[in-house]
Amino acid sequence: MFGIGFSELILIFIVALLVLGPKRLPEVAKTLGRFYREIKSTVDEVKEVIVEEPKTQHYTPPIEEKLSQVDELEEELDKEIKKEKKKEEKTEEPKREKISFKKKQGESIDESGT
């Protein structure tokens, strides 16, 4: 740990005990422990980002991105065209009534045309 031996660590502890006193020493030790954990976790996160991120990211040149987008749009367009064709096939022609101008038996045409 930072190149400090056991005897130096005991010397630092004795000096801290004399300077801070027995009442404040536990509080300072807890605070230093939290600070050390935060620094260590931050350093670990930075290492992970620096080491792992380049492995996961793949650079795609802009022309290849554009071509892949064009391919996707082409596929979507083909799907839409097929849907429209199916809709046209499913729609039935409207049924038409047969209109006849022949007189049915017993009916007469008025002069007014009705």
UniProtKB/TrEMBL annotation:
Topological type in the membrane: Single-pass membrane protein
Compartments reported by the entry: Membrane
Source taxonomy: Bacteria, Pseudomonadati, Aquificota, Aquificia, Aquificales
Disordered: annotated segments: 81-114
NCBIfam families, per the entry: tatB (TIGR01410)
Key words, A-Z: Cell membrane, Membrane, Protein transport, Translocation, Transmembrane, Transmembrane helix, Transport
InterPro entries in UniProt: TatA/B/E (IPR003369), TatB (IPR018448)
UniProt KW Transmembrane helix keyword: yes
Database matches in Pfam families: TatA_B_E
Compositional bias of kind Basic and acidic residues: 81-107
Organism of derivation: Persephonella atlantica
Name of protein: Twin-arginine translocase subunit TatB
Entries under PANTHER family matching the protein: SEC-INDEPENDENT PROTEIN TRANSLOCASE PROTEIN TATA, CHLOROPLASTIC
Organism superkingdom: Bacteria
